[in-house]
What we know:
Blueprint: E1 5-12, E2 21-26, E3 29-34, E4 46-50, E5 53-58, H1 60-73
Antiparallel strand pairs: 1-2, 1-4, 2-3, 4-5
Amino acid sequence: MCLAVPGKLLSMTDDPPHLRTGRVSFGGIVKEVSLAYVPEAKVGDYVIVHVGFALSIVDEAEAQRVFDYLEQMGELGELNEP
């Protein structure tokens, strides 16, 4: 199953908005994602990521709730896949 997962934006490139990428931490697992759909995102924000694209910004409390639910459901294993 493909899910959108919350993560914290750790850093981002200085590319034009449609090419910008960032390093996002998902509970300690860090992945490079596209920030093209959230040009207003800044380091420290929590973003919802689906198939390598950040889709929206959420507050920290909501991100933690979603992450906790996914962890309880055992749906975070795909984050460890290459």
